[in-house]
Amino acid sequence: MPVAEVRTPVHVEGEVVVTKRVGAHRHLTLTAPGVPERFRAGNFVAVSVPGHVARRALWIHRVRASSAFGPTLDVVLEPRGEGTSWLAAQPVGAKVAITGPLGRAFALPKDAVSCLLVGEGYAAAPLFPLAERLRERGCAVSLVVSATDESHLLSALEARRAVRSVTVVTADGSVGQRGQVADHVDDLLRRAGADVVYAAGPTDVLRACAAAAERAGAWSQVALESPTPCGTGLCHGCPLPVAGEDGVDRVVRACTEGPVIRGDRVRWDAL
Amino acid sequence: MVAAGCGGTGRELEPFSGPDGLAGLDFVTRSLTLDPRAGGAGPRLVEVPGGLVNAVGLPNPGLEHFLATELPWLVRAGARVLVSIAGATMGEYADLARRLSRAPGVAGLEVNVGAPDEVGAGLFEVREPYHAASVIAAVRREFPSDRPVLAKLRPDVSRIVEGARSCHEAGATAVVVGNAVPAAFPDGRAGGLSGPAVGPVALRCVAEVHRSLPAMPVIACGGVRDLASARTYLAAGATAVQVGTALLHDPTTVARLRADLAADPQEDA
Lengths: 271, 269
Known about the structure:
The complex is a heterodimer of chains A (271) and B (269).
Chain A: E1 10-22, E2 25-31, H1 35-38, E3 44-47, E4 56-64, E5 72-77, H2 82-88, E6 95-102, E7 114-120, H3 127-136, E8 140-147, E9 165-170, E10 177-178, H4 181-192, E11 196-200, H5 203-216, E12 219-223, E13 239-243, E14 249-253, E15 260-262
Parallel strand pairs in A: 7-8, 7-11, 8-9, 9-10, 11-12
Antiparallel strand pairs in A: 1-2, 1-6, 2-5, 3-4, 3-6, 4-5, 12-15, 13-14
Chain B: E1 26-28, E2 45-48, E3 51-54, H1 62-76, E4 80-85, H2 90-102, E5 106-112, H3 129-142, E6 149-153, H4 160-169, E7 174-177, E8 181-184, E9 190-194, H5 199-212, E10 218-221, H6 227-235, E11 240-242, H7 246-249, H8 253-263
Parallel strand pairs in B: 1-4, 4-5, 5-6, 6-7, 7-10, 10-11
Antiparallel strand pairs in B: 2-3, 3-9, 8-9
């Protein structure tokens, strides 16, 4: 059996090198020596906010192996609380303590299977680097991006070369199909002929995707968003109820045993 | 020292622990119980100014699983393993001590007799100093006298000296002064406050204990995050310090502190 590659996280001082507002989101490009090099799709970073003990977990939207600033990573913020608002306001040149890459990444299929990727809002971010990895493996990728409205939608423009089709769903119908992911996912899964469903976003979206995959006999992997006070597995503050392979219910850490986990393992009712 | 409940299983901390990893580091495990515990429902931690309020509920895999998997890993990593133990009865504490006394690689025990909400967590109730002391005596009877038994006490300034004295008399090698301070979540649920906010509270307790019992080793725990905060405790009479909540904010805290103390050696920490 091949020995798994060790990708231990690092704790470094990063720097904001690009900041731009896109709709309701703020996209930051950061240097964080060692983090982009270790990244796999589905990983996240934990960022310190001055005056706050707990850390903010951010999905990695993209990494560049080289740029004018060296290796960089992109994160997408939706300013909601004090922490995300502070981060969103950081100018180019601001220093930020970053820990990462953290968490279990998406598992990739060995064969060139058909994959449906479903993401909602800013949390769809980890699906974009995933789409590229799947494409490299010859997988047919269908991408669904959804949001409450157009301003909360992550642009699928750059992903177009990695995917076979893009479907847009907004709750208000401002762009693409109107409604919720749950209304469309069975149909999208059937049309894509997907063997694997990857989902990222709020819990209701993940649950709908996991259930649809189950109905269609497909695998699912979901990237859960839960508040992770430390992000590193030290505090046990992000309980995730799962059913183990042995059928025994357990509570694991969303940051360490997750955030990516098989959809059929999550005890959704206990979340 | 790594404080109980803030170092994960050790594996999660190792990547951030510098070139030596956990080698030579005093590592206090999260509190272990005889049987596995899933821990409480979320939210388990909430941020407040200067710290965190937690009610994690002592999730742990139980003694059996710990002995089979986590302990051997920690020993192999070179950590000096101090196992934190918690029980619902004195008998449970004694059982844990007896079985851990036979496990290879256990450097010592830290007896959790100062949880912020022990009744809510289903633990032995420590209302009076003699409650804690009787637990220590039960543990001490089962654990070899050449290895340390630490008593981790609640930082309650009105009772701490009495608690430290009775635990010491009951056989505790040292007392760990400081733990999460009894507090509440915004919704009123019981929890414990930790982090920089509790530093001055623990410091008062450490100073009082050291003044009254200068011969007893005191390990300080509460808000330690850098050389200055560690030195403050050492100056107040602590023989060592534990780092807890700071690791959640910056997992490299212990590695930095070890390096800083080694570069500026005055006392062991």
